[in-house]
Design goal:
Blueprint (H helix, E strand, L loop, with lengths): L2 H14 L3 E2 L24 H4 L9 E9 L15 E9 L5 H15 L7 E6 L3 H9 L7 E4 L1 H4 E2 L6 E12 L20 E14 L5 E14 H8 L12 H11 L7 H22 L8 H19 L7 H12 L5 H4 L1 H35 L4 E2 L1 H11 L3 H10 L3 E2 L1 H18 L8 E3 L2 E4 L2 E4 L4 E2 L6 E11 L2 E3 L1 E3 L3 E6 L1 E2 L13 E4 L3 E10 L5 E13 L3 E6 L1 H24 L6 E6 L4 E6 L6 H16 L4 E7 H6 L13 E7 L5 E4 L14 E10 L2 E8 H21 L7 H33 L5 E3 L2 E7 L5 H15 L3 E8 L2 E8 L1 H4 L5 H10 L4 E4 L3 E5 L6 H23 L1
Parallel strand pairs: 1-2, 4-5, 10-11, 15-20, 33-34
Antiparallel strand pairs: 2-3, 3-9, 4-7, 6-7, 7-8, 8-9, 12-13, 13-14, 16-17, 16-19, 16-24, 18-23, 19-23, 21-22, 21-24, 22-23, 25-26, 26-31, 27-28, 28-29, 30-31, 32-33, 34-35, 35-37, 36-37
Helix pairs in contact: 3-4, 7-8, 7-10, 8-9, 8-10, 8-12, 9-12, 10-12, 13-15, 16-17, 20-21, 23-24
C-alpha cells in the first residue's frame, strides 16, 4: 500500500460510515488566534466542538496538513517530522467511545491487515469504559496499558479549547529496534513502539486559566499519522523508508553524491534536508513568508537548518528550491495549492537560502570567536544571550553550537536559551503580525489556496486625504468571497479607492472605520498585496455591509500622524547617520509603528555614545527648522541622478516617488510611505537604543511626538523619585547614586569574603562524609546556598585534600538547584568523566549541563529532588566500575 492508497482507504472507510469528507484547511489557522500553525486535524473542527458554528455533518473525516514546531530540533532521527498528514474521523455530539474503538480496530486489522500480535493499546488511568470496549473487540487485557495525563490525556490545542482522555494504538516495530529491557512497552523512549492512532474522547472545554468544564455533548477526535502508519504497513522502521520520502531522499543523494542507508551523520543530514524541504514547500504554499517573528520565523529557521545540513553533505550552493520542486511534483495531485504557487515557492526559497549562505561563513566564524572569548575570560562556555543571538540573528541551530561546544569540552546555557526561546514563542503567539491572507500576484488575481479573487489595483488617495467616499468591490470571510457580511463577522474588505495605507516598506497599515448607511466596520489593519490590492481587515460592529455599497472610509488620523512622524524621522536619521558616522551607511530594514520606529543599517563598528548624542541634537535641530517635506513623481533614472537613496534589494518601476526634505534638500529617498508635511510636526526625536544585530549590522530604535513626550515625562518622574530616595536634588542624583554603588560594592566584597570563609570551613568537615565505592572515594554532599564561583573554590579545596576522589556538590541558589562535579586525574584515566556524571545527576531535578572530564557544572529546576539526585552518584560510579570489569573479562 502506498501513501495515496492509505489516504484514500481511510477516507473511503469513514465515508461508508456516513462521515462527510472535508478538505484539509491551511497550515495557517485563520480562525484560531491561539495557534501559531495548524498542528492537528481537529483545529478546523474546534468551532463545532465548542458550539460556535454548525458543522456540515455530525460525522466528519479528513486528511489534514499539520506542522508541529516542537519537533524541529528532533528532526534527523528516524521518526520525528515537522510537517505531516493527519488522518482523522470526528463525531460532533454523535457517536462516542464504543463506535470509535470498534471502527479503529476494524480499519487497522481488517483493512490495513496489520498483525494483531504487534498492536498494543494505551488508555487513560481510570478509563474503565474504554478498557471494556477494547476487550469487546478482542484485545487481550495484558496488551491494554494504563497511563497518566502526560501520555493519555489530550489537548487542548493552544492555550484553551476542547480536551479529554485518549486511547492510543501502538505498533510494535520489533525487538531488534528496542532497548532490550523486559519492561519495554508502549511509551518507552527507545523507539520500538510507534503510536499510529490516537482516539481522543473529547469531554471537556479548558479555559485560559486551565479550568475544565464538561462539554454539552461529548465528541470524538481521532488522529492517525499517515507517515507512521504507512511505515508499519510497508514493514519499515521509519517514515523515511517509505515511498513518501524516497523521491526527496533520491534527489538529495543525486545532488550531493552521497548514499543513504549507511547510518551515522550522513543519514541524519539527508533526513533533515528531505523533511525540512517538504515542510518549507507547504508553508510557503499556504502564504507564510520568511521573517524574524511568528510563522515566518519558523519557516526561516527550518530553511536555514536544511541549508546548513546540506552544507554538511557538500552542497555549498543553493539547492533547496530544487528539493521544493520534488515535493511539488510528488504531492500536488493531493494538494493543488502546491502547483498553483510553485513559482512563488521556488523563488522565495531560492532568495532566502542565498541570503543565508552569504552569512553562514560569518556565522561559523562568530561561533569560533565567541568560544575563544569565553575561554580567554575563564568561562566554561557560552551564555544564553550568546546562544540565542547566534540562533536568532544568523539562524545558527543551537544543536550545532552545542556540538562545537562538546568538541571543545565547553558548555552552553541551555536553560537560559530555552527561556529566551519561550519569550520568542510568546511574542509570536500574542503578536499575530502576519499577513494571513497574503497571496501572491498572478496577473491581476490574488491566489489564496483554492480561492481566487480577481480585481484591479486599489486607488490609494491617502497621501493627502484621511477620508474618502468609496465603493465596496469585494468581501472575504472564512477564506470565501461573499456578497454581504453581518454584524459580528470578521472580514477582509476591498474598495475601489481608499485613504488607508496598506502595510508595506516597513510601515504598518492604517486602522480606522468603514461605514455605510446600513452598517459599520472597525478596521484593525490594512494590507497591500504585491499586485497593488489594498485589503482592509476588520470586524462589522453595526448592521451589515455588502458588495457595491457606497461607504465612507475614515482613517484613524491621530494614529496615522504618529506613524507619519516616525516615518519622516527615519529619513532624517538616515541622512544624519551618513553625515556624522559614515557616508557608506546603507539601510537594511526598518519598522515604522505609531509608538516607535527602528532603523537597521550597515556599519562595521558600533555607533559611539558621542555620535548618538550628536545625531539626536542634529535631528532635533532639523525638526525645529520646520523644513518642508515634499513628494515628487519622476523617472527612476532622474531620481538616482539627483542623489536619491534607493534600497538595494527593492524593485522599482520606471516612475518613482521621491521624498525630499528641506530646500536645499538634506534628504532624498525613494519612498511610498506617508509623511508629515514639514519636520516641525514631528515635535521631538529621542533615540532609545543602539545595538548590533549581526556582523556589520546595527539597529537604532527611537520615538517621536507624543510617545517622546510621554517618555520624557516618565524618565523625569523616575529621576525625581530617585532624588527623593537619596535625599538630594536632581543635580545631586548622579553623585549620590555613585556613592551608593561604591558602598554596595564594598558590602558585596565583604559578603563574598564571608562566603569564602564559610565554604572553607565547610570544606574542612566534608571529607569525613566521603564513602568508598569499590575502591573509589566518592563524596556527594549538599551544601548551604553558594554562588557557582564559591562552589568551584570549595570543590578545588576538597579535590586537593582527598587526592583521589569523585566530588559532587549540590546547592540551592535563587530557589534553583546547582551542581558541581570534580574528578581527580587518576580517576579520569580510569574512564570517569565529570560531564557524564553531572548530566545524569542534574537530570533527576529536570536540568542538565556539561563540562570537561575534570570539572563540570549543571543547573536544575526541582530543588526538592536534590537528595534523590545525590543518592544516584554512588550507583553511577558502581555501574561504571562494573562495566569496566566486564570489559576486562
Amino acid at each position: 500500500m502506498t501513501g495515496d492508497e492509505l489516504r484514500q482507504a481511510f477516507l473511503s472507510f469513514f465515508q461508508d460510515k456516513e462521515h462527510k469528507i472535508i478538505p484539509s484547511s491551511s497550515l495557517v489557522p485563520h480562525k484560531d488566534p491561539t495557534l501559531l500553525l495548524t498542528s492537528a486535524g481537529m483545529v478546523q473542527i474546534k468551532p463545532y466542538f465548542l458550539g460556535l458554528e454548525a458543522p456540515p455533518s455530525r460525522r466528519l473525516a479528513s486528511c489534514q496538513k499539520c506542522f508541529r514546531t516542537t519537533d524541529i530540533d528532533s528532526v534527523g532521527d528516524s521518526k520525528h517530522l515537522t510537517f505531516f498528514e493527519m488522518l482523522g474521523n470526528f463525531s460532533v455530539g454523535d457517536y462516542f467511545k464504543k463506535e470509535a474503538i470498534l471502527w479503529a480496530w476494524d480499519f487497522v486489522t481488517k483493512y490495513l491487515k496489520l498483525p494483531e500480535e504487534r498492536l498494543w493499546i494505551t488508555i487513560y488511568l481510570d478509563d474503565d469504559e474504554a478498557f471494556a470496549y477494547w476487550r469487546e473487540v478482542g484485545v487481550p487485557a495484558g496488551k491494554i496499558l494504563r497511563f497518566g495525563e502526560k501520555d493519555n490525556f489530550w489537548g487542548p490545542v493552544g492555550n484553551s479549547g476542547p480536551c479529554g482522555p485518549c486511547s492510543e494504538i501502538h505498533y510494535d516495530l520489533g525487538e531488534e529496534l528496542g532497548c532490550g529491557k523486559t519492561e519495554c512497552k508502549p511509551n518507552c523512549e527507545c523507539g520500538r513502539f510507534s503510536e499510529i492512532w490516537n482516539l481522543v474522547f473529547t469531554q471537556y472545554n479548558q479555559d485560559q486559566s486551565g479550568q475544565r468544564t464538561p462539554l454539552p455533548k461529548p465528541n470524538i477526535d481521532t488522529g492517525m499519522g499517515l507517515e507512521r502508519t504507512l511505515a508499519a504497513i510497508q514493514g519499515k522502521s521509519s517514515p523515511y523508508e517509505t515511498n513518501l520520502f524516497s523521491p526527496l531522499i533520491d534527489r538529495i543523494c543525486q545532488l550531493s553524491g552521497k548514499e543513504y542507508g549507511r547510518g551515522g551523520n550522513t543519514d541524519r543530514a539527508i533526513r533533515i534536508v528531505a523533511e525540512h524541504s517538504r515542510s518549507i514547500t507547504f508553508l510557503v504554499a499556504d502564504g507564510v513568508m520568511p521573517s524574524n517573528e511568528g510563522r515566518g520565523y519558523v519557516l526561516r529557521r527550518i530553511l536555514r537548518r536544511a541549508s546548513l545540513f546540506g552544507r554538511k553533505l557538500g552542497l555549498s550552493d543553493p539547492f533547496l528550491n530544487e528539493m521544493a520542486d520534488v515535493a511539488v511534483g510528488t504531492m500536488s495531485h493531493i494538494y493543488p495549492e502546491l502547483m498553483a504557487n510553485q513559482s512563488l515557492i521556488t523563488e522565495v526559497i531560492r532568495v532566502e537560502e542565498e541570503k543565508f549562505i552569504t552569512t553562514l561563513d560569518t556565522g561559523l566564524n562568530l561561533v569560533e570567536k565567541l568560544f575563544g572569548e569565553a575561554s580567554v575570560q575563564g568561562r566554561e562556555g557560552l551564555t544564553s544571550e550568546e546562544v540565542f543571538r547566534l540562533y536568532d540573528t544568523y539562524g545558527f541551530p543551537p544543536e550545532l553550537t552545542a556540538e562545537i561546544a562538546r568538541e571543545k569540552g565547553l558548555s552552553i546555557d541551555w536553560e537560559g536559551f530555552q527561556a529566551a526561546m519561550e519569550k520568542q514563542r510568546e511574542r509570536a503567539r500574542s503578536g499575530q503580525k502576519l499577513v494571513l491572507l497574503s497571496g501572491h500576484s498572478k496577473g491581476n488575481a490574488e491566489v489564496k489556496g483554492k480561492l481566487t479573487v480577481t480585481h484591479k489595483q486599489t486607488h490609494f488617495v491617502g497621501y493627502k486625504e484621511y477620508n474618502s467616499r468609496s465603493k465596496v468591490r469585494d468581501l472575504i470571510t472564512n477564506e470565501s468571497s461573499v456578497r454581504s457580511v453581518a454584524e459580528g463577522s470578521e472580514v477582509d474588505m476591498m474598495l475601489d479607492r481608499t485613504p488607508f495605507y496598506g502595510e508595506m516598506g516597513g510601515q504598518v497599515g492604517d486602522s480606522g472605520e468603514i461605514s455605510s448607511q446600513k452598517g459599520k466596520a472597525v478596521i484593525i489593519n490594512t494590507i497591500r498585496t504585491p499586485s497593488g490590492v489594498i485589503i482592509h481587515r476588520g470586524k462589522v460592529v453595526e448592521g451589515s455591509i455588502s458588495v457595491g455599497d457606497e461607504v465612507e472610509a475614515k482613517v484613524d488620523s491621530a494614529r496615522r500622524l504618529d506613524i507619519a512622524r516616525n516615518h519622516t524621522a527615519t529619513h532624517l536619521l538616515q541622512a544624519d547617520l551618513r553625515q556624522i558616522v559614515d557616508r557608506r551607511i546603507e539601510q537594511k530594514g526598518s519598522l515604522v509603528e505609531p509608538e516607535r520606529f527602528r532603523f537597521d543599517f550597515s556599519h562595521r563598528a558600533p555607533v559611539t555614545e558621542e555620535q548618538l548624542n550628536e545625531i539626536q541634537r542634529q535631528v532635533n535641530e532639523w525638526i525645529r527648522q520646520d523644513l518642508r517635506v515634499e513628494a515628487k513623481i519622476l523617472p527612476y533614472s532622474q531620481a538616482i541622478a539627483e542623489g536619491a537613496i534607493a534600497l538595494f534589494e527593492e524593485k522599482y518601476g520606471e516612475e518613482v516617488r521621491m521624498l525630499e526634505i528641506g530646500e536645499p534638500a538634506i534628504s532624498k529617498e525613494l519612498c511610498g510611505g506617508t509623511h508629515v508635511s514639514s519636520t516641525g510636526e514631528i515635535g521631538i526625536f529621542l533615540i532609545t537604543s543602539e545595538s548590533s544585530i549581526g556582523t556589520g549590522l546595527h539597529r537604532i530604535e527611537a520615538v517621536t511626538g507624543r510617545k517622546a513626550e510621554s517618555l520624557i515625562e516618565s524618565r523625569l518622574t523616575a529621576l525625581q523619585d530617585v532624588a527623593k530616595e537619596v535625599e538630594g536634588s536632581l543635580e545631586e542624583v548622579s553623585g549620590k547614586v555613585k556613592t551608593l554603588i561604591s558602598e554596595l560594592e564594598a558590602e558585596r566584597k565583604r559578603v563574598l569574603s564571608l562566603e569564602r570563609e564559610l565554604s572553607r570551613r565547610i570544606a574542612e568537615d566534608l571529607p569525613g562524609q566521603a564513602e568508598q565505592v569499590s575502591g573509589v572515594t566518592v563524596l556527594a554532599a549538599k551544601v548551604p546556598a553558594l554562588t557557582m564561583p564559591i562552589l568551584r573554590e570549595m570543590g578545588d579545596i576538597l579535590r586537593d585534600r582527598l587526592k583521589s576522589a569523585i566530588v559532587v556538590l549540590a546547592t540551592v541558589y535563587n530557589n534553583k538547584p546547582n551542581f558541581l562535579t570534580m574528578v581527580t586525574p587518576d580517576l579520569i584515566a580510569r574512564g570517569f568523566h565529570a560531564g557524564d556524571i553531572i548530566n545524569q545527576v542534574a537530570k533527576v531535578t529536570g536540568g542538565g549541563g556539561g563540562g570537561k572530564a575534570a570539572m563540570a557544572q549543571a543547573g536544575g529546576k526541582d530543588a526538592a529532588k536534590i537528595d534523590e539526585a545525590l543518592q544516584l552518584v554512588k550507583s553511577i560510579v558502581a555501574s561504571k566500575i562494573s562495566l569496566s570489569s566486564e570489559g576486562k573479562d
